[in-house]
């Protein structure tokens, strides 16, 4: 058997089993985590842009709404990420599995920490998102 035949056969075998190569396709957890992390960074940057545009109310409201939509989408992806982190993966040590669970557990806190215009605490009541109607209902119910 010549060297060319050996190389041809090795290439054929490599092509056949290419889909099982984890290095080429990457770990699904790491890809999804990187996407969520990039989304969080983009939302923080949009929130900063919205804070700078206080003079232009329409642009500020549009950016705030976009930040809230991004936060909701990211929270949906965190659920998927929790499922991916819980899967059994060959070659994954128990310590790495625990660290992945810790990374996923920290994501909702990071997402909720992204500032948007309607997520703050009002100074007079101390509770989030209490408007005048909520306070009127509380006074009327008492």
TrEMBL record:
Domain of life (superkingdom): Eukaryota
Gene Ontology annotations for the cellular component aspect, listed alphabetically: endosome; plasma membrane
Disordered: region residues: 113-132
Name the record gives this protein: Uncharacterized protein
Provenance organism: Zea mays
